[in-house]
């Protein structure tokens, strides 16, 4: 299983230390949560912070934008060194265009679905996506409880991607630990985001490595 530790639960007074910790782990990528206080009821960090992280991260950057009008920031996200630009379906009336813009800028395109958004909405665009991110909590905060229907939803997404011959990877975000991670692995997830479970653990490197064995 690929693991993407979410820096939202890191110690922001020691970001360099925590990014280097992730460098030294089995993590596949580093997950960065940008929040605007409009789409979600919280504000996290923005592009200048990611620019600095880019200089020290040895892992690919997975930028999860919980913001309205993400299409305005495609070039800024690219300049931050993002490998994946994740935009929410719920804020993109012209999703196909945004996906094309992300790819034209040289990034991999990922679309995120809130817990109440069905996977079916992606059927007509599935084969143009590099990744689909399912939220297994309502976006905005770390440390929330896993929403159980996400396991069945992961299975439904796997089926949809197979039916549409899409090569998109399935990423799940929110409430991931060793128990929920195992259920998600069995349901067909490719990448698990983990914030508080990693950063609140006594030995984050070993926690990442345990998750990656799922
Ligand atoms: C929530 C963020 C997540 C968050 C997950 O809106 O998208 O990436 O960091 O945190 P945990 O793993 O603690 O649920
Ligand atoms: Zn996230």
Which second-level CATH architecture applies?
Alpha-Beta Barrel
User: How many separate domains make up the residues?
Assistant: 1
Shape field: globular
Strand order of the largest sheet: 1-8-7-6-5-4-3-2
List the total number of helices: 8
Quickly list its features:
alpha/beta, TIM Barrel, eight-stranded parallel sheet, 8 strands, binds D-xylitol-5-phosphate, binds zinc ion
Topology at a glance:
Blueprint: E1 2-5, H1 15-23, E2 30-35, H2 47-56, E3 61-66, H3 74-79, E4 82-88, H4 95-104, E5 108-113, E6 131-135, H5 149-163, E7 169-173, H6 178-187, E8 191-194, H7 196-199, H8 204-212
Parallel strand pairs: 1-8, 2-3, 3-4, 4-5, 5-6, 6-7, 7-8
Helix pairs in contact: 5-6
Care to describe what's here?
This protein has 8 helices and 8 strands; from the N terminus they run βαβαβαβαββαβαβαα. The protein is an alpha/beta fold and 214 residues long. Strand 6 (131-135), helix 5 (149-163) and strand 7 form a beta-alpha-beta unit. Bound molecules: D-xylitol-5-phosphate and zinc ion (ZN).
């Amino acid at each position: 299983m690929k693991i993407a530790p979410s820096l939202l639960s890191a110690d922001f007074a020691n970001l360099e230390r925590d990014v280097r910790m992730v460098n030294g782990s089995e993590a596949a990528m580093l997950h960065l949560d940008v929040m605007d206080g409009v789409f979600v009821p919280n504000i996290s960090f923005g592009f200048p912070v990611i620019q600095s992280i880019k200089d020290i991260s040895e892992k690919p950057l997975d930028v999860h934008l919980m913001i309205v009008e993400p299409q305005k920031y495609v070039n800024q996200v690219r300049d931050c060194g993002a490998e994946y630009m994740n935009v929410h379906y719920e804020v993109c009336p012209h999703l196909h265009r945004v996906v094309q813009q992300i790819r034209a800028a040289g990034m991999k395109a990922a679309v995120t679905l809130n817990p109440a958004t069905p996977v079916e909405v992606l059927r007509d665009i599935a084969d143009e996506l590099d990744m689909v991110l399912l939220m297994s909590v309502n976006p905005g905060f770390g440390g929330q409880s896993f929403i159980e229907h996400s396991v069945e939803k992961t299975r439904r997404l796997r089926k949809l991607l197979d039916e549409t011959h899409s090569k998109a990877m399935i990423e799940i975000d929110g409430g991931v630990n060793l128990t929920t991670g195992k259920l998600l692995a069995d349901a067909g997830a490719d990448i698990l985001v983990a914030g508080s479970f990693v950063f609140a653990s006594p030995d984050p490197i070993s926690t990442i490595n345990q998750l990656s064995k799922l």
